[in-house]
Amino acid sequence: MLVAVVFALTGFSSHGGSSSGSSGKSKGKSSSSSGGGCSSSKSKKNKKKSHGNGSTSSPTASASPTSPPVRAVLVGCAGADKNGATVQVTSTADGERTVRVPVTFSGASGAALDAGSLKVTLKARESRTVVVPMTAPGKAAEVKNCLVGTVERA
Fold first, then answer.
1. Cα angle at 138 between 137 and 143, to 5 degrees?
2. Dihedrals φ, ψ of 118, to 5°?
C-alpha cells in the first residue's frame, strides 16, 4: 500500500513498475512526461482561449476611448509671410463641441520658439479651417516647423 502511495506521488504508475528494471524506468519517465504534457496542454488550451478572448475584445474596448471627438490636422505653418498655423479642425461628435487647439512653433534647431492656441466651437460633424496665431508674431520668420498638440475640450 505504501508503494502505491509513493508511485502516485512521484507520477509513476504501477503498470510501468511491473516491467523489467531498465525499460520500467524508461516507461516510468515517459509516463510521467506524457502525464505532465497532458495537464500542460490543457492549461495551454485554457491560456489560448483566455488570450483569444482578450485579443478579441481588446480592439473594441480600445477603439472607443482613443477616437477623439475632434481632430486637428496641420495644413500650413507660420513663416516669413504668415503669423500663425493653418489647421483643419473636424468634429466627429453628434453634438456641438468647444475645444482648444494648441500649436507649438519651432525653429531650425528644433527648439520651441513660441506657442499659441485657439478656442474653436464646432457644430455636430462640422469641419473648419482656422488659423492658430503666434503669441510672438515677430518670431514668425524664424519658424521652420509647427506641431499641433492634443485637442482638449475648452
1. 75
2. -140, 135
Q: Pick from 84, 98, 91, 96: which is nearest to 148 by CA? A: 84
The torsion angles phi and psi of 51, rounded to 5 degrees, stand at: -65, -40
Cβ neighbors of 59 (< 8 A, separation 6 or more) are none
Q: What are phi and psi of 143, to 5 degrees?
A: -70, 130
Compute how many other C-beta atoms are within 10 angstroms of the C-beta atom of residue 82. 18
Q: Residue range 8-18: average pLDDT?
A: 48
pTM given for the model = 0.57
Q: Whole-angstrom Cα distance, residue 16 to residue 132? A: 81
pLDDT of residue 67: 65
Q: Which amino acid is at 141?
A: A
Decide if 89 contacts 115 (C-beta within 8 A).
no
Strand residues in the chain grouped as ranges (E): 70-76, 84-91, 97-106, 112-122, 127-133, 145-148, 152-153
Strand order in the sheet with 84-91: 70-76, 84-91, 127-133
